[in-house]
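Data availability (excerpt). The following record was deposited with the supplementary files.
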Amino acid sequence: MHRTLLLLALATLVGCGGAAPPASDLSSSGSALRGGSDDDAREAEDQDFHHGSRRQSLLATDLRLLDSIRSHGPADGLRPFLGRHPTYLAPRQPLAIGEDQVEAVLAAAFPPAAQTTQEWQQFSGAVSADGRFGYTFGHGTHTTTAADGSRNQLFALYIAVWRPHAHGWRLEAYLWNLQLSDPGTPPPGFPLIEPGVSGAPRFGSARRSAEEVLAADTAFAQRSLTDGYSIAFAEYVAPQGAQMASPIAWGGDAVAAAFAGWTPVETLAWSPVLARSTVSGDLGWSVGNALYTLRDDSGGIVFQNPSKYLTLWARQPNGRWKYILDGGNSRPLSPP
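Predicted structure:
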């Protein structure tokens, strides 16, 4: 991304971090496949089939969510899909964690007097190896109609994190942001679209995997403070990762180019708030608050941009966590 775009749209670009108050140690379990016998081969095929069917179920649920938002509005259309203790990130609002905070932010973001519509199109999504964690993402438009009938339409992007419950997939975290220009479409054959990126499984404790995501995020944040955001983002984005801002940076090289050009008068700091993972240990997510600061040569503050973020993480084959989706939006100014 060009440096001017970084300054003007940082609220939609910032993404990293996420701390973990106790992440649930989910009861689902699994074991690594062992090759060698016909039974093993059939088991692998069965697991591939069930994993594919879970992904199709997730994508279908996401499409129902998008249709519900289209039909009933961004607040009423979202509510039936919220899971237990959800996290919600809306532009110009504080980070909301838990039912009460989410309901307060929905009321503030979409007051009854306002006429707001959202039209979404799904990009893709994926499911963890244990089938207990999924994510989807996409693009669309956000339109507001004033009392005098005038309309304002902006481009928009979303990232959703899902968990299966008794009545199907439900939202665990949801972010949407606004963009001044068309975010664009993915390049042909980009793996985040098809077949989707799920990371390298390492079955065990979901709590422990969440702690690993927290540790990766903390190191990511420290890298940005110590060496600048250009080095940090190039190091922590996965090869198949994407930055959810206009234009979307598809792939690790494109993300590194988007964040190139850091100077010592700039600081990009963030404070993790929450991280979650799953029993298969291949996917995780994190949220938090961030603050970009530009100073003059004497150290005085020239510009500040507060934001919040949602980041999707995937375990790499070497066991390290890197992010595959990252998006953010604006928030009220407060310490990061």
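Summary of structural features: The first strand starts at residue 82 and ends at 89.
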